[in-house]
Amino acid sequence: MGRAPCCDKMGLKKGPWSSEEDQILISYVQKYGHGNWRALPKQAGLLRCGKSCRLRWINYLRPDIKRGNFSEEDEESIIKLHEMLGNRWSAIAARLPGRTDNEIKNVWHTHLKKRINKNSDDIICKKKKSDSKKEFSQKRHSTCSSTTTNVTDQSGAPTSSSMQSSQPSSSDLSSVAETTSFAAEESNNNVDDNKVVVVKDENNMERQFSEISSNFLEIDESFWSEALSVENSNTTYDPSEFSYPFSSSSINSVELAYDYGTNDTIVHDMDFWYDVFVKAGGSPELPEF
DNA sequence: AAGCATGGCAACCGCCGTCGC
DNA sequence: TGCGACGGCGGTTGCCATGCT
C-alpha cells in the first residue's frame, strides 16, 4: 500500500548536490519559479526527484537564507519557542527569518537540547519563582478589590458566561489596556479554586478571569514571549497555532489567548494582558524578556 | 601517524493534510 | 465520495570533519 517514494524512480541521483546541480536549480527557479516541484527536475534537466529539489532549494539555495552560526539571541529564541511550540520546527522557523526548519532542528539536537539538560538547575530556580508568584497571588487576596463568581463547568473549560461575544477592535486594544480596571468589591477573601475574577473595562464590559492559582502559574515568561511573537507578527493569529491554552481546563489561558472565544479571534495588545495579569495579582516582576 | 569516537549537518524517508478530478 | 498527486513536515540516516587516544 501507499505511494512509492519518488526517489525510487530509476536513474535519479541521490546524495550531496554538486555545484553544477545547484546552479541549474537556481537559474531554473529564478527564471520559471517552482510551481510544480515534481515536474521541475525534468524541465530543468536535473536527475533528481522533485522532493530533493524542493528540499535543496528550501534548505540551502533560497536567496533569503541566513547562513552562518546562530547568535546567542537566536539560540535563546529557539529555546523559548521550542518550550512553547514543541518539535514544530517549521513553526519555529517561521518566527526566525532566514532560518530553515531543518537548520533549527539540527541546532536543537546538537546544541540546545544538551544546554537545556545542563540548565536543569535553572528550571528548579524557575519553579521557585513560580512558587513565589503563587504566594504573591494568595497574598493579594487580602488587598485587591474584585468580584468573584463561581465557575460552573466541571471540566474546567470556560463557561459560556465567561466567553463573552463583544469584542473590541484591534485598534481599541491599546486604549483598553490603559484603562482596564477591576470591579469595586471582593466578596470572598479566601483562596478558592472555583472562583473567577470579574474585570471591567472602560466600556463597563465584564471580563472574567479564573482565580485558580495553578492556572495563573501557567502564565509565565513563555506566555509573554509567545504573545510578543504573535504581536510582532502583526497578523490575525490562528488559535491552533498558539500553544496557549495548553488545555481547555486552563481558564485563564483561554481567556488570555482568545478574545473571549468567538470565531473572530483577536489578539489583544500584549500591554493589555500584562495590565490584566498584574492587576489580577501576577508578579509585577514578570515578564522578563 | 593511525585508528576510533564523536559531533555537525545535509539529505532522505515516510507519513499526513490538502486539493483537484 | 474516493482516489491519486503533491507539498509540507518531523524523524532519521549517513557522510564528513574534528578531536582524542
Automatic annotation (TrEMBL):
SMART domains: SANT. Keywords: DNA-binding, Nucleus, Repeat. Residues 9-61, 62-116 form the HTH myb-type domain. It is found in: Nucleus. This is Uncharacterized protein. Residues 154-175 have a biased composition (Low complexity). InterPro entries: Homeodomain-like_sf, Myb_dom, Myb_TF_plants, SANT/Myb. Residues 133-188 are annotated as: Disordered. Its main location: nucleus.
